[in-house]
Amino acid sequence: MRRVAVIGAGVIGAALADRLVRSGAAVTVIDAGRPGAGTSGTSFAWLNSNEKLPRHYHDLTVRGMRAWARLGEEFGGPGWYRPTGNLRWAVDERQRRVLAERVERLRRWDYPAEELTARQVADLEPALRTPADAFIAYFPAEGFVHGDQAVGALLTRARSAGADLMLGTGDVVLETGGGELRCVRLPDGRRVHADVYVCCTGWRTTQLVQPLGVHVPLVAGDAPGSAAPCLVVTTTGTTPVRRVVHTPTVNMRPAWDGGMRLESGEINDLVDLSTPPEEIDLLGRALLDRAERLLAGFTASAARRQLCVRPLPIDGHPVVGVLPELGNAYLAVSHSGITLAPVLAELIAADVLGRSPEELAPYRPTRFGDRNG
Predict the structure, then answer these.
(1) Closest by alpha carbon to 276, among 231, 241, 339?
(2) Integer Cα distance of 68 and 63 in angstroms
(3) How many CA atoms lie within 13 A of 249 on its CB side?
(4) In CATH, what number does 82-142+223-309 get?
(5) Which regions of the chain carry the CATH code 3.30.9.10?
(6) What is the 3-state secondary structure (H, E, C) of the chain?
(7) Which terminus of the chain faces fewer neighbouring Cβ atoms within 10 Å, N or C?
(8) Nearest-CA neighbor of 228 among 195, 275, 181?
(9) Where in the chain is the domain with CATH 3.50.50.60?
């Protein structure tokens, strides 16, 4: 039986552990903290293949969306999987043109994309104040995932199938010898041995493998001015939207226990991990104000402001495969981790168990050449 250590219990690690153990592997999951508490549980978690280029990446993310649908069926229609559709509109001329061109491209690729009127939007989202002159697109196959809850469900199923979960361990160290990983050393001195070690640690992947002399081409999440952090605000109380909504000023979708999750690309550009708390509060208030202007009858009460750090490979595409420097060390890191998690789990499990899926060829770490040192 092949022994696999999965390091990191975000959505990719949880989905992979679930797939591997049900494929016959002996799986140990190791996480420094609480599963799903990082990027997976704090991100906007939009399920889509809306802006994924080139075509091979689009097709992979479409497969990810379909894999979520299968998971939803397996779990009996869980509340954490929400294939609600996505509304997006544009008002200024350039953005109208960009959105219209995207709709046309996606239609050519047989991806569901429609144009709606403001009156039709009112039937879908009665509280939403949509500009009468907006160009409005609707993508009915898209949706979102409540990442924290999805991670919990996947790990529970993995544990019931025999996976060993070692959670809240604190930061681990990878020990090497003879050109491969020898074990994962926990802070308390325990060591976990495996045949293959899969690193699913998101934006912290660099911190994990850099001591081994391995460089992973990710945008540094903790660097000043980094594009990786984003600001997500979660409101409580009423939930005035039913689906994912992208507007020129704020993006919205329902939250787990009522309320909404809000973000904005424009505001994301203003934050990093060094942004002072008082500035985070002001920017969070700006998101709430924007939502209030767009939603009839909505007044934000309590709200939680969180910085979410996204793993961003420098070319925008997943990094998946064995590290050339260490033959039994495997990387799985992607910006679109929520959308891709279940399909990457299927493909990585096949890869680890010896079947080398062709679909992973464009995403291997070797595509970056020699970037170590």
Answers:
(1) 231
(2) 9
(3) 16
(4) 3.30.9.10
(5) 82-142+223-309
(6) CCEEEEECCCHHHHHHHHHHHHCCCEEEEEECCCCCCCHHHHCCCEECCCCCCCHHHHHHHHHHHHHHHHHHHHCCCCCCEECCCEEEEECCHHHHHHHHHHHHHHHHCCCCCEEECHHHHHHHCCCECCCCCCEEEEECCCEEECHHHHHHHHHHHHHHCCCEEEECCCCCEEEEECCEEEEEECCCCCEECCCEEEECCHHHHHHHHHHHCCCCCECCCCCCCCCCEEEEEEECCCCCCCCEEECCCCEEEECCCCCEEEECHHHHCCCCCCCCHHHHHHHHHHHHHHHHHHECCCCCCCEEEEEEECCCECCCCCEEEEECCEEEEEEEECCCHHHHHHHHHHHHHHHHCCCCCHHHHHHCHHHHCCCCC
(7) C
(8) 275
(9) 3-46+147-218+315-368
Domain 3-46+147-218+315-368 superfamily per CATH: FAD/NAD(P)-binding domain (3.50.50.60)
Convert the pLDDT of each residue in 113-149 to its tens digit: 999 999 999 999 999 999 999 999 999 999 999 999 9
> What pLDDT shows up at residue 369?
79
> What is the tens place of the pLDDT at every residue in 287-307?
999 999 999 999 987 799 999
